[in-house]
């Protein structure tokens, strides 16, 4: 097992995460070795057995498990039930733009899908009422859906819309489809702008169960409020994505 500082390569974080005092934690040194192995064996390949890897790198199984565990949380490895740990596919890239989840997933060659958890009418609390331009206690449509990509559960989306604007939405909209597309094509809604806030969280026990993920897996939480060009509110959306399966991309201009 090498204990020297890994050389810095162009494009990597400065010093590749090594503390300034230069002493590399053993699990981190193993992790860098595993990253090289992952690149060599490729997506879907099984890692060698735990004992073999521990012997190869000259560390204890506890140290090896810590390195593997971090790579699982980061989405570089997957633990398959009843089988060994395998190299994960690349993360899904979702654009931070006024496009639907459906469009973003299809551009990557996967079929998007949704499983409906709830579709109902609720009373708006003061903040939701302000976001959607309704009176506090006014009626809003609430849709909660598990997001799928190629049949895999990858997120959970909660959408709120003012009922007075879309009185027949629950009757006319196929909740398995794209809400964004329905609003545009069937109701003539024009998305003018949106404000989006992004943070990292851990899923609640209920959310983890719905998404089918480990509660310790980091999640990416997006809050979005959308308006038409004249400032009329359209929807407020809370989207929770698996941090091990998603990354987000945008292009910034001056």
What's this model, at a glance?
The protein has 254 residues and is α+β, with helices and mostly antiparallel strands. Helix content is 27%, strand content 31%. The chain folds into 2 domains: 74 residues, Winged helix-like DNA-binding domain superfamily/Winged helix DNA-binding domain (Arc Repressor Mutant, subunit A, Orthogonal Bundle); 158 residues, Chorismate lyase (3-Layer(aba) Sandwich).
Number of H- or I-type helical stretches: 8
Overall mean pLDDT: 89
Strand neighbour order, sheet with most strands: 4-5-6-9-8-7
CATH topology group of the largest domain: Chorismate lyase
Rg, alpha carbons:
22 Å
- What is the 3D form? elongated
**Low-confidence regions:** 1-8
Structural class: alpha+beta
- The arrangement of helices and strands along the chain is HHHEEEHEHEEHHEHEEE
Got a strand count?
Answer: 10
CATH superfamily of the largest domain: Chorismate lyase-like
> Which percent bin holds the helix content?
25-40%
Approximate strand percentage: 25-35%
Give the oligomeric state of the chains in this entry, treating copies of one chain as homo and distinct chains as hetero: single chain
Biggest sheet, in brief?
A: 6 strands, antiparallel
Draw up the topology in text.
Elements (H helix, E strand, L loop, with lengths): L25 H16 L8 H8 L3 H13 L3 E3 L5 E3 L4 E4 L5 H6 L5 E12 L2 H7 L6 E11 L2 E11 L6 H4 L6 H7 L7 E10 L2 H7 L6 E10 L5 E10 L3 E4 L5
Parallel strand pairs: 3-10
Antiparallel strand pairs: 1-2, 4-5, 5-6, 6-9, 7-8, 8-9
Helix pairs in contact: 1-3, 2-3
Structure description:
There is one protein chain. The protein is of the alpha+beta class. The chain has two domains: 14-87, Winged helix-like DNA-binding domain superfamily/Winged helix DNA-binding domain (Arc Repressor Mutant, subunit A), CATH 1.10.10.10; 92-249, 3-Layer(aba) Sandwich (Chorismate lyase). The protein has eight helices and ten strands. The strands form three sheets. A six-stranded antiparallel β-sheet has the order 4-5-6-9-8-7. It has a two-stranded antiparallel ribbon with strand order 1-2. Helix 1 crosses helix 3 and helix 2 (50-57) packs across helix 3. The longest helix is centred in the first third of the chain and has 16 residues, at 26-41.
């Amino acid at each position: 097992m090498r204990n020297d500082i890994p050389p810095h390569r162009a494009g990597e974080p400065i010093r590749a995460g090594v503390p300034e005092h230069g002493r590399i934690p053993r699990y981190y040194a193993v992790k860098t070795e595993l990253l090289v192995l992952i690149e060599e064996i490729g997506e879907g390949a099984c890692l060698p057995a735990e004992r073999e890897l521990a012997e190869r790198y000259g560390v204890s199984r506890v140290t090896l498990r810590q390195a593997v565990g971090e790579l699982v949380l980061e989405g570089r490895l997957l633990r398959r039930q009843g089988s060994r740990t395998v190299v994960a596919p690349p993360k899904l890239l979702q654009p931070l733009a006024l496009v639907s989840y459906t469009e973003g997933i299809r551009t990557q060659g996967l079929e998007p899908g949704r499983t409906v958890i709830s579709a109902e009418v609720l009373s708006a609390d003061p903040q939701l009422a302000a976001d959607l331009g309704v009176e506090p206690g006014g009626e809003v449509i609430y849709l909660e859906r598990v997001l799928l990509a190629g049949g895999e559960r990858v997120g959970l989306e909660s959408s709120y819309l003012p009922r007075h604007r879309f009185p027949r939405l629950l009757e006319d909209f196929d909740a398995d489809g794209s809400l964004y597309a329905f609003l545009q094509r069937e109701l003539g809604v024009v998305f003018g702008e949106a404000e989006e806030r992004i943070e990292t969280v851990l899923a609640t026990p209920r959310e983890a169960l719905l998404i089918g993920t480990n509660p310790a897996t980091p999640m990416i939480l997006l809050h979005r409020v959308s308006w038409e060009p004249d400032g009329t509110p359209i929807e407020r959306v809370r989207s929770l994505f698996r941090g091990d399966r998603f990354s987000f991309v945008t292009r910034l201009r001056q």
